[in-house]
Amino acid sequence: MNTDPSALRITDYALRITFATTWNDQCGIAVYSRSLVAHLEKHAQVQIISLDREHRMQLNQLAQQMNACDVIHIQHQYPFFGGMALHRNWFGRLLRKLWKPLVVTVHELDMGEDDLWPINMYKPWFNGHIFGAPEIDRIVVHIREHRDLLVNLGVEPEDIKIVPEGVPHVLEVAISPEESKSELGLTGKRVVTIFGFVVRRKGYEVALEALCELPDDVVLLVAGGCHPDDRTGFFEELKAKSSDRVIVTGYLPDDRIPIVMAATDVITAPFTEMSNSGSIMRSIAYAKPIVASDLPATREINERLPCLVLARAGDPQDLAAAIRGLLDDPRDAVEAVQAYAREFTVARAADEILQIYQELTT
User: Which of 48, 140, 150 is nearest to 103 (CA)?
Assistant: First the structure.
């Protein structure tokens, strides 16, 4: 795929889409966007407007480029637009300069439940202010919980579409589990992996406690590095806990991910809170048995098609028991994630999004 974010991808179809997103940044939304756009391009002209840090431009220039289309589609995460402080956030100012039909995918919805007053009063107001803007014609969310929260903020229910995040195509390499474990220095070990950017809400402390309940040949592989927008220092805290049973890889380039996945026996996602998770979708793509925290987002995945083993959030004993069961017999779990991957593809998500574009242009 052409990685020049200013390039216009031309097809034989008439519908012209401006797709504003991170593109080459170390970012889960960039990974999602590249996979989604590859399918959208089969049915439309797609102009990528990069929200990567090095490609951000003056507001008037950005709006002018975005308006050169039939439909604008923005991928929203707070750091892309200056964060949640009203005086720094420029999302609303951008919206007021856009005049074409507008779709916004909300990847994250921080309502401030764990913050102190007045922050937990401010954040709902802020979200209602930006996502209730009259310039937005449709909001796309990945989970029902986000739709319900937006409705409570005053967004019209008919303007919100739930499009489950699709399971992407992934790079595969011809390497056996034994070879990959040898390459990673894990020969003879059973590997439990937490995949993706290291952020506190992924529940690493719970996983570390669960590891103490598991046999000595089980290791915890933290397969990821610090998120670019994380300034908390948590990655360094976690890295300091490395040992012969806790291995922290740091950031994984795309060509290293298949090796880590080949070495992995079980994926765990012990989130303490979550919205949607690209790391879970990519783990499903590699047909790995997965134990995740029992949270609304993971329950919703299982409502579509049961594929995750769920453990009580924040309970290391329950997590350890679920991991042990998958280490002993992963077959049913592997078949379940394979079935989910066949059904909920990125192509399916792209088709649903194309229907939204067509609604707005016909």
Answer: 140
Domains along the sequence of the chain with CATH:
8-166+345-361 (3.40.50.2000), 177-343 (3.40.50.2000)
177, 262 in Cβ contact below 8 A? yes
| CA neighbours closer than 13 Å in the CB half-sphere of residue 261 | 26
pTM (predicted TM-score): 0.91
Looking from the CA of 274 toward its CB, the CA atoms found within 13 Å total 26
327 with 265: CB under 8 angstroms? yes
Helix locations, the chain, DSSP H: 28-40, 59-66, 91-95, 119-131, 144-152, 177-183, 204-211, 234-239, 257-263, 278-285, 296-304, 316-328, 331-343, 346-361
Q: Model confidence over 280-292: pLDDT tens digits? A: 999 999 999 999 9
Tokens of 158: 């008919």
Residue 221 has pLDDT above 60, yes or no: yes
- Positive/negative CA dihedral, 266, 278, 170, 305: positive
At 243, list the tokens. 């040992």
The residue among 176, 174, 171, 166 whose CA lies nearest residue 254 is 171
Q: Which of 107, 3, 108 is nearest to 55 (CA)?
A: 3
218 three-class SS: strand
Write the pLDDT tens digit of every residue in 193-210: 999 999 999 999 999 999
Per-residue CA distances from 346 to 77, 85, 258, 280, 353 (Å)? 20, 33, 19, 14, 10
What are the tens digits of pLDDT across the range 152-205?
999 999 999 999 999 988 877 789 999 999 999 999 999 999 999 999 999 999
